[in-house]
Amino acid sequence: MNIGAPKALWKGAGRVIRNWRLWCLFYFLNLLFAAVLALPFASVFAKDISRSLAGSDLLAGFNYRWYVEFIHANDANGAYFESLVPQIVVLLGVYVLMEVFLAGGFFSVFAEGGRGKVSRFFSECASKFFPILTITIGEIVLLFALYKGDAFWARANLAAAGEALTDAQVLHAELWRYGAVIAAFMIVNLFSDFAKAAVAIDDDTLAHKIWRGLAFAMRHPFASSGTYLGAAIVSAAVIALYYFVESGMHPLTAEGIVLQIAAGQIFILLRIYSKLIFYAGEAALYRENQIEVINVKREMLE
Amino acid sequence: MIFSLAGRNLWQQPRRLAWWFWKSSPVVAALLLVSAAAAPSQTTLTGIANYKIDVRLDPGAHSTDAEEILSWHNTSGTAVDRLLFHLYPNAFKSNNTTFMREGGREISPAARGWIDIIKFVDLRTNQNLTENIRYIQPDDGNLHDSTIIMVQLKRPVRARDSVSVSIDFQERLPQAVSRSGWAPGREFYFVSQWFPKIGVLENGAWNCHQFHAFTEFFSDFGTYDVNITVPANYIVGACGELTGEPQKSNGTVTYEYVAHDVHDFAWTASPDFLSETRTFSYEGLPETKVVLLLQPEHSGLADRYFAAVDTAIKYFGFWYGPYPYPVITVVDPPRTAHVGGMEYPTLITAGTEDYTLKDFLSPEVVTIHEFGHQYWYAMVANNEFEEAWLDEGLNSYSTGKVLEKAYGPNTSVFRIADVYPVYLYPLASFQGLPIAPIIGKVWIHEPYNRLPLYLDYDKTDPISKYGCMAFDRGSYRTIAYNKPELVLRTLEGVLGPDMMGDVLRTYFEEYKFRHPTAADFERVCERVSGKDLGWFFDQFIDGTGTVDFGVKSIDYYRETDLSSGASTYVTTVVVTRNGEIKMPVDLRLSLDDGSAVDTVWDGQSSWRSFSFRTSVPPDYAVLDRSGKIPIDMDYADNSLRVHSLLSPVFKWVGKILNYFQNVLMTVGMLA
Ligand SMILES: [Zn+2]
């Protein structure tokens, strides 16, 4: 029996909890990469303020004067921040590859439903890495083309019309434009997600599997987009909740600071959870509804 | 056709002139009697260049045609045989003008603008001098630049004598550029720097610069009487006061505006304006009529505009002197006019964006700034080509003080590249470093919004460099606005806020309706404060040195008196001067019990060691704790603790870490 988006999301949410070890693994990898990225900034920051009264000002709140002078001293004069750009780009690239690597394991384990063994998870990651990388590269190329096409279109149309519009009209035009671009991005992302799910879950040639994933999303437009949007809403809600909570936190004491840092880490854990719901929800939907199709075919054969 | 003098006979001119002088400020008549040799502090310079202009707008052709009668008084002790005029609209004539070249700009043929002199007559003799007009380029010799004309007179203007000339001219208005022209997509005209404007004769020589990319203006005071004819459905705003009844004929309407004791005249016309007038008065200040011309899409902002003007009238009036003109017109231009904030005598443009947050004080800041120019520019009229900082800097300083007083110390939220990144999570960035997710909403204490640009251009040009000759736009803004505001705040630190107020009040009182220079301002500062400030002006105005004081080290040891057992802590603080500028700076040693020992370092040597003997152990040493030197480039090194304070480090490192975790999650959406 086919399941709908709510059921898929529900199943997915449970499956992520059941595989909490993978969830933690993801979190630690994220933390590790972030720590490496933050280190050069944190070190000049600590050096600048640990013995300065600027530290007290920054404890009370953000200090614009300090910030401008700090950026100037490290950017304009020493070009220190600029020198970090290559290593940041490389790290971000490696991180994306790592997530591509993990995706195969997540789809496989979440499709199976139970608690996946870590060894099985990694073997699935390894065997699905190149197929999923292929899809990801295709996706990035498509997104880039969309982005460029939009910029080209905007230059040609909005720039010409813009002079005659009021601020409000420009804003509305831009909102529609960004809305359309985001929708297009999401559609590309959704199709590539199901292609990845198919690649991770099914056994067939790569081209067939990709086609099957895309066809699945087209055959179940409501269920697949519902699952995707549902997970997206969970992510957005997590982010909104965090910024709401965070904007009210102005700790001055050690306990308060620990609490604020903890809140930040809980937020990351929730962001990861909501990301895994994408994988798990989509995998559940694909697996359950795919089985239905196969069963129907078998019944027809009998 | 172009020579037609519709309804105007030259024999009528003397009569019209007499009538017009009668209507002009009484100061004019008085001044004509005052010798130039009179005590300079007593003499205002009103009534030197008086204009009577009839102008008609043809919206279909984006053009105007006009007749101007100028009566100019030679206040110098020598005869003048040639007159120099600015023809600013010719800056928009081609891509090769000095304005376009310096600004690295291009202007499409359809957007161009220019001014043609049709006829030039010396009314003393009725001689047509049109053939005697020559374009000159005294600043750069650029033959493609036609923003100045020189007219050779057949009969010189004797010392302390007057001349009247009539000039017929036509102007093609440019597509909105540099606060002038028509707005695409809208029926909106802003007509500024539009008529042949005579240069300023200083010590017998003409001061008349070409229109440069980075400059404002300079001209003499006088009375303007301008008849503006527009289509009947147009609403007009202009410098000065609307006089008499509008005259309607053939689908057009003519408004007459008269402005006394001003040195420029601008006007605007549009059928779309929402017009509202309110009157503000305070005890001890004269009543001021405020005319607001608002774009329909900004109709909700009327109260904020009026409140801002009201605030400005009050503080500028009580601090420096009453606003003497009966009216101020505030024009809110449409987005496509690219006008922004600009000042003209008794008329200012302000402007705002739709959807700005109240916190940003978008119409308020610009409205108060442009109103402030009525003091620093319209009345105290320095040469903006040469010493732009004298009005822009003083005005930035005074505007900042008004904003602080009226809206509290935090008057700006973070704004970069025309967006408010604080509200655009998580796209915000500052110089390539995304920050909004780390810091949230940011308030900026007034002078510090001037820091980023100053830090980028600290060594490029000194403030004393002619603004119009600055390296580029950023350097011009730095030496006209940013550095001067920081420098004047630093001067306030040296003199004290009350003394600074006295200085500015005296400077305004002595130099209103005159053309002061930076040297005059320096003299007022020294006289009022009774201090020698040569060191300050030499370093901050004429030089490009920077201020950066720092505490290099703090060490202490304990001495115990063997007989009494009492402890004495001997602390050594080494301070350094890392910038070129030498000036006194406060040094404080703060102790563990919260008490402090204060002293002053003269800041002359490159470093100095201070020794303190106290009964309590030291906590930290700090230079300029009260922020009297906001131009110091690195305030983090102004203080040094004996022991590190790690809680802010953890707090912000936690945020930085969290920020990168989020960046990774966002980038990971690709996978
Ligand atoms: Zn200004």
Q: Taking all residues together, what is the mean pLDDT of chain B?
A: 88
Alpha-beta content class of chain B: alpha+beta
CATH uppermost class of the largest domain in chain B = Mainly Beta
Q: Per DSSP, what share of the residues of chain A sits in E-state strands of 2 or more residues?
A: under 5%
Number of domains of chain B: 4
Corresponding CATH superfamily of the largest domain in chain B: tricorn interacting facor f3 domain
Would you give an account of this structure?
The complex is a heterodimer of chains A (302) and B (671). In chain A, helix 2 (20-49) packs antiparallel against helix 5 and helix 9 (221-247) packs antiparallel against helix 10. Chain A has ten helices and no strands. Chain A is mainly alpha-helical and 302 residues long. Chain A has helices spanning 5-18, 20-49, 54-60, 64-77, 80-112, 118-162, 167-201, 206-219, 221-247, 254-301. The radius of gyration of chain A is 23 Å and the shape is globular. Chain B folds into four domains: 48-272, Immunoglobulin-like (Sandwich); 276-381, Neutral Protease Domain 2 (Neutral Protease, domain 2); 398-540, no CATH class; 549-642, Immunoglobulin-like (Sandwich). With 671 residues, chain B is of the alpha+beta class. The model of chain B is unreliable at 1-42 and 415-437 (pLDDT under 50). At the A-B interface, helix 2, helix 3, helix 4, helix 5 and helix 6 of A face strand 25, helix 8, strand 32 and helix 13 of B. The complex binds zinc ion. Zinc ion is lined by residues 369, 373, 392, 395 of chain B.
